[in-house]
Amino acid sequence: MLVRGAITLSRRLGVSSLVVGLTVVALGTSFPELFVSVIASARGEPAVALGNVIGSNIFNIAVILGVGAIIRPVRVELRLLQLEIPFVLFITVLFPLLATDGAINRVDAAILLVLFVSYMLYVRWTARRDSLSVESDVGDASTEGGPRSPATGSLWMAVVLVVAGLMTMAFAGRWLVDTATDLARLWGVSERVIGLTLIAGGTSLPELASTLLAFLRRESDLAVGSLLGSNVFNSLAILGTAAMVNPLAPTRDFLRVDMLVMLLTIVLLIPLARSRSRIGRWEGLGLFGIYVGYMLLILLGPTRF
User: Fold this and answer.
1) For the whole model, what pTM was predicted?
2) Extents of the domains making up the chain
3) Which of 65, 93, 95, 122 has a 20 to 30 Å separation from 111 between CA atoms?
4) Which residue, among 272, 300, 266, 276, has the nearest Cα to 286 in the 3D structure?
5) Which CATH architecture has domain 2-136+156-299?
């Protein structure tokens, strides 16, 4: 419902699918992460809050984008290579830098939230520019007697589909995370492992469902945009809000293992995407292989507790 509504919404408003993916879909599918991390921070469980954000960011690129590329090679728009991917790399590097003093405090949280608001304003500006460009192109076509390509589908129905999709995912995400947390604690593993594995994977299932559907519908801009936008939302809005509620102190394993893996997935994304402006099946398999190796490390290695 979310993907169908988002595609219709972009066409009705004259906005590119990439912009809709970076905003509506990305923010909507990240609501479970927001709910979990803020509640965990308020309860004094920083490992769950941090693990959820870091694990979700890794899952988005290594698993969702990797599996999507295995299913069908992913075309990468030039704008992503020039703007969005470098910005995601910047905030990924900023993440551990803010934690070098031992905690992500409320001042750090304010920096993250200001960056998020600035990014949203920038995306809104580009959306207005795209909309004006589309109107100009349609006007030129009609003046020259060329065919006009009207947007199909009701605007209100698109909004209803988006809202219904978001509400369904929020309910399912909360139910899944509660169950996963109970199971993991019964198994006797740490809150860090809980956050990085079951909770991060559980809260990322909305991104998995909506992105793979977008890939199958050949809406690669919407799919890749929603994943990068989700990472921006996770790293800036969710982490910033959670740290504003209660400062977060990452453990040594977060800094030495998890944040480095998160950085690695983004760094690798740049040369992979620049290769013929697409991510092919072998590249997707490599991204997925990184996630499998990472899961084996934290589940079987010395950092599992």
Assistant:
1) 0.79
2) 2-136+156-299
3) 65
4) 272
5) Up-down Bundle (1.20)
